[in-house]
Amino acid sequence: MAHLLGAERVGIAFPTRTVFESISLGLEDGDRIGIVGRNGDGKSTLLRMLAGRLEPTSGRVTLRGGLQVGVLDQQDTLDRDSTIGHAIVGDRPEYEWAGDARIRDLLAGLVGDLEWHARIGDLSGGQRRRVALAQLLAGDWDVLFLDEPTNHLDVQGIAWLADHLNKRYATGRGAFVAVTHDRWFLDAVCTGTWEVHDGQVEPFEGGYAAYILQRVERDRMSAATEAKRQNLMKKELAWLRRGAPARTAKPKFRIDAANQLIEDEPPARDPIQLAQLAATRLGKDVVDIVDASVELGGRTILDDVTWRIAPGERAGILGRNGAGKSTLLALIAGRIRPTTGRVKTGKTVKIAELTQDLAELTEHENDPVRVVVSSLKSSYQSGGKELSPGQLLERLGFRSGELSTPVKDLSGGQRRRLQLLLILLDEPNVLILDEPTNDLDTDMLAAMEDVLDSWAGCLIVVSHDRYLIERVTDHQFAIVDGWLRHVPGGVDAYLALSGKGSVAGKVGPASQPSTAGGAGATAGATDGDSGAGPNASVTAGQPALSGAERRALEKEAASLDRRLEKATKQREGLLQRFETADHGDFDALAALQAELAAVDERIGELEEAWLETHEGLEA
Predict the structure, then answer these.
(1) Looking at residue 436, which CATH number applies to its domain?
(2) pLDDT recorded at residue 384
(3) In whole angstroms, what is the distance from residue 280 CA to residue 551 CA?
(4) Which pLDDT value is given to residue 49?
(5) Contact 423, 274 (CB under 8 A)
(6) Long-range Cβ contact pairs of 11-14 (< 8 A, separation 24 or more)
(7) Do 220 and 295 reside in the same domain of the chain?
(8) How far apart are CA 75 and CA 86, in angstroms?
(9) How many domains is the chain built from?
(10) 3-state SS, residue 36
(11) Is the same domain home to 271 and 260?
């Protein structure tokens, strides 16, 4: 393999801190590297130094002559006055870029739902991030340096990006280095992992699963490694080894010794015990959403949703950006009321939300961490053990020296963990997590998951982090065209339903925002009764239906009947409007015709879903 670039005894020092003293590493053709480590240990600094954006204090970085390097920074560097089209393809004529299959693919995968001529300055931060990524990937680069490339991408966008990077270069050609906390993404695209810690860069073979396997073995053999961190990694390894076989397919080394570490390691959580504890705390009724629809600004966000949340249910919510996930959470929490239908909350239910705005910390900004936690409960039950707030802080990754730090001076990840602590100490029995992985590195994500494993109650999670969803929830639901659908196959099944990878829409100047339906729109809605368990949905090819599966299909059939009746009445109303319309008003007639075509298409989709469901019942 050809050598692309190398760092020789480089050091980076700032006035208040030395990040690296003397590290040497290189990048070869064919390398696919993921960089992991704790927040603040220098991951982005290392990336910028290798990319030539930051001069080392000592040593040198050398690049092969003529090497083309592309960089995705965390900061937004786009021209606010430019348009999306110009930012991505520049002044190239349309026939030229439109004839390039790679350009068409990345436009469909990243910006297909955005207006081609929209001004960059009018976009949201997430939309600008996608444009910046598309701009970078449109170029021809020998090496790509990507700093948090999955930020602001939904599950489909992350899957598309992984697929693009895997196909972008021929085997043994090109290279990329990515800093990311998305563990699924690391496993999907990386053949090597660099861990940044204590001023060093330690290489590991394989993606995240391989890194965990090797790290556990390293920690086991290192007398200086503290027992707590080792046990946490062992638990993470145990879950990885019990999960999908693909997660451990990449390691090339012998893993028998690592398997011995987890022979006696129990499962991450005991679902029966947690369900019993949850039922004791919650009673029979939690939250029942029945035939609920939500309309905002003249647009239907949720359509005829029925979901009876059971005690101890741990569910992940999937869906594209803007599909209505946060609206569903607000409906469960009682922050909004349905336009039609009803939401019933049990008398003993106490709901808490881990929101994205850190509102729980506002009143504590000037207080040290120890003052905040000492003013709350003196103990917390976790996994059958009684923990003090300080012990819980330790499990969430706080060091003793950080307890005197004012809340306003904490890092984003520390504030996020403290926010979770305040919520847990309030002892809710229904916990809603809205994008809980923001600002957390891989170690802190593992620590948070460890705490959630022993939490008894209902857990509802919205996240684009596939690893987290699969790790802490028992089954998943997806919002597709406003419908709530149970997906027993998890994230992979959801991606297959939604048309893996593309964010939406057509490509090019005529592109318009499209609905977040994809192939999954034909599947109808599943009334997610958690009592039916994670397999309560139509699954092709099953030899026989269990009682739970049959009940779920019967619910789906009833839901589809209601939707068909509703759509049919809507069609009849449009036909009546045609009869009374001014036949000389061609614009109004065209609008009515478009509405009618959309309703006819929806009726066709519902009928297909109805047939599929009844075929499943007859199987």
Answers:
(1) 3.40.50.300
(2) 58
(3) 26
(4) 92
(5) no
(6) 11/56, 11/57, 11/58, 11/59, 12/42, 12/45, 12/49, 12/54, 12/56, 12/57, 13/57
(7) no
(8) 20
(9) 4
(10) strand
(11) no
Kindly state the helix (H) or strand (E) to which residue 459 belongs, with its residue range. Answer: strand 458-462
Distances (CA, A) of 259 to 235, 263, 395: 12, 7, 25
Please give the structure tokens belonging to residue 170. 């021929």
Whether residue 502 contacts residue 112, with contact meaning beta carbons closer than 8 Å, is answered with yes
Among residues 97, 27, 101, the alpha carbon closest in space to that of 61 is found at 27
Structure confidence by residue, pLDDT tens digits, 347-405: 888 898 887 777 778 788 888 887 887 776 666 665 556 777 777 777 777 777 677 78
Q: What are phi and psi of 514, to 5 degrees?
A: -120, 165
| Cβ atoms 46, 7 nearer than 8 A | no
Residue 228 has pLDDT above 80, yes or no: no
Last residue of a domain, one of 264, 281, 310: 264
Q: Tell whether 115 and 39 lie within a shared domain.
A: yes
| Helices 125-137 and 101-110, axial angle in degrees (round to 10) | 170
Is 455 part of any domain?
yes
- The answer to whether residues 124 and 242 belong to one domain is no
Residue % of the chain over a pLDDT of 90: 26
Q: What is the pLDDT of residues 396-430, one digit of tens each?
A: 777 776 777 888 887 777 788 888 878 877 778 89
The two beta strands, 3-14 and 143-147, are unpaired
Alpha-carbon distance 340 to 305, whole Å?
10
- Structural domain for 559, as ranges: 547-618
Is 385 contained in some domain?
no
Contact 478, 489 (CB under 8 A): no
Q: Report if residue 356 sits inside a domain.
A: no
Between strands 314-318 and 458-462, the pairing is parallel
* Residue where a domain terminates, one of 264, 289, 311: 264
Q: Is the pLDDT of residue 511 over 90?
A: no
Q: Does the pLDDT at position 319 exceed 60?
A: yes
- DSSP code per residue over 339-378: SEEEEEE-TT--EEEE-TT-GGGGGGTTSBHHHHHHTS-S
Residues 259 and 128 in one domain: no
pLDDT per residue as tens digits for the range 429-451: 899 998 888 777 787 788 788 87
The string of pLDDT tens digits covering residues 459-490 is 999 988 888 888 889 889 999 888 898 888 88
CB 307 within 8 A of CB 477: yes
Same domain, 30 and 171: yes
Amino acid code (one letter) for 95? Y
**Among 335, 283, 290, 345, which Cα is nearest to 312's?**
283
* Residues 287 and 179 grouped into a single domain: no
Distance CA 545, CA 474 (A): 20
Q: Where would I find the H helices in 426-546?
A: 442-453, 466-472, 490-498
Dmax (CA) for the chain in angstroms is 87
Considering the domain architecture, whether residues 256 and 191 belong to the same structural domain is answered as: no
Asked if residue 497 is part of any domain, the answer here is: no
Which residue type sits at 392? L
Q: DSSP for 380-400?
A: EEETTEEE-HHHHHHHTT--G
Helix axes of 412-425 and 442-453: crossing angle, nearest 10 degrees: 10
For 392, 423, 468, the CA distances from 363, given in Å and listed in that order, are: 21, 14, 29
